[in-house]
Request: fold
Amino acid sequence: MTSNTLVLGAVAYDAKVVPIWDGFIAWFARRGFAFDYVLYSNYERQVEAHLRGDFHVAWNSPLAWIETVRLARKRGRAAQAIAMRDTDCDLTSVVLVREDSPVKALADLRGKRIGVGAGDSPQATLIPLLAFADADVSVEVVRHDVLVGKHGDHIGGERDAVKALLAGTVDAACVIDGNRLAFAREGLGPTRVVHVTGAYDHCNMTVLDDAPPEVTRFRGLLLAMSYEDPEVRPLLDMEGLKAWKPGRTTGYALLERACDRFGTLDSWLAIR
Amino acid sequence: MMTVDLEDLGLDEGGHLLVKRALASASRVLVRGHSAALAVDLPAWCRSQGHGVEPVANGFAVTRSPHDRWSGAERAGGVDDVVARPPARWGLAARGALVEAGAPELDLPLANKADVWADEAARLYAQASAAQWDPATAVPWDAPIENPAEVEDAVVQVMTYLIENETAALLVPARFLGRLHPHFREVMQLLAIQTADEARHIEVFTRRARLRRDVLGLSTAGGQASLGTLFDEPDFAIASFLLSVLGEGSFLSLLWFLRDHAPDACTREVARLAAQDEARHVAFGLAHLQRHVGEDPTLRGRLAAAIERRHGALQSTAGLNAEVFDALVLLAAGDWTPAALRRGHVAVVALVGEMDRGRRQRLGRLGFDADAAGTLSALHTRNFM
Reply:
């Protein structure tokens, strides 16, 4: 690794993370760009390391983005989202019930058991529970904590929530919109949508105000990646995108509000 | 704008197929329907596929993704168009398939048509498929066996020898099969069915040996050394020449000999059935080598050198084990009377002569003149295979 190698931090939410970033190293190297990565077991450790300057650019979950913004602000610093996947934009989460359920709307779930994903999952817990809170519908939350610290990147928590729904141990389940179709293909259904949240954005490439100049080239190379390129296509397939887009920060308002409403980050932020 | 009406079909029920079908012929499609979750599922599906989507007055306007997985894809030849040198990147794809760019390059060193191809491969494969026989029913396992004890021992010894040789005949093509480019589909299929033939031969020879005995016969170091030179041969053409043209060719004579001289119906039948398969193996070996020699006449010199090299490597070994030779004499004799033994001996000597004639004839078909064929045939392993 040369002294001007750009280093990325990412969370190891799945074994495929290693071939993805190893593949990116090779792809960047063929374009004369020195790149490397470090993996963390959870986003909180990654965010702290980023603020400490251990690496240059973070591949952040939406919650890690907010953690970075708030921790940076607390320290008089600033964060910027430089890129995101096309599939990170305009997601929604859905509240599902069994097809034969009498439930027609959120209000019908008052006092019922609601299956959610991991406690720190924006898409399967925080944003859907904000919908219940906004509607003033109090419920019993049943968490499916698969790999906490990975912010729901692992699909297991959502799958467990839907399994619990179909098994009748919860009355509703909260998942990201696309997973309803994915679970249907696995035979986890039928389910019926009783609520759709507002749209929100997901992951982004985050840099801080001391990012090195190499970040500009890194971003340019990301945005130039083409799905038609057979070398990079398998990596894009694994990472779940067709194209990188410029980063935007307009899609995090719902999650910001959920964090404020539930005090999700308060204790974490207080001691940092 | 083309319109697709999903009616009440959800995307979680296969509705995406109608959308995909429409997008194949139009870059912008109006999708409408009254499935309850359409407004959730369609945008989520479009996002995962890279398609644009926006709600419009009477449904959703879907714009085809600009990202094309099939850009740069290439046809792996044609279904009936075998190319001279298929690239490794075509890998396991069916011949004639459209192959996505970026497929991994598999290690398939046998990728030169001139080295492996025979126009007869498809016909021989079809013939082999049609001629598969069931060991359970094709052999008269219950036919009476009234061989004297030593004659039965001789049968068991010959079966033991056949099993060992057929094991080599299975493993040699199997090793090349794993290195052959699957573009040469008919050759791949033929080698596969050839190994299946040998597996069946091993089964019936083993079963015949055990009809009256619990233990098998002898296996000699010299016999294994002879087969080992086949097993270790890395060149497909040379291995095919030594195994199919010379070895299995000689074996064909041996199996016919057993068909004609074995003392019981069961042994005669397993030999007949195996011979019918071996004839195909020899035919393929001859066919692709004739083609190969036609394209590269220098191959003939390499084949001759291979026989000489193998002869040199086996010079210090005993050749055919004496027990096999004696067992063949006794088996053909059928009893211990001097007259019968003389008859058996004459038959085995005739067999050796017949093997030599067959080898010279096949060498002639590969373009060796009579003198060279005679010399080379004489250098063939004394172990027959």
DSSP finds ten helices and eleven strands in chain A. Chain A touches chain B through 28 residues (CB under 8 Å). The first strand of chain A starts at residue 6 and ends at 11. Chain A has two domains: 6-88+201-270, 93-196.
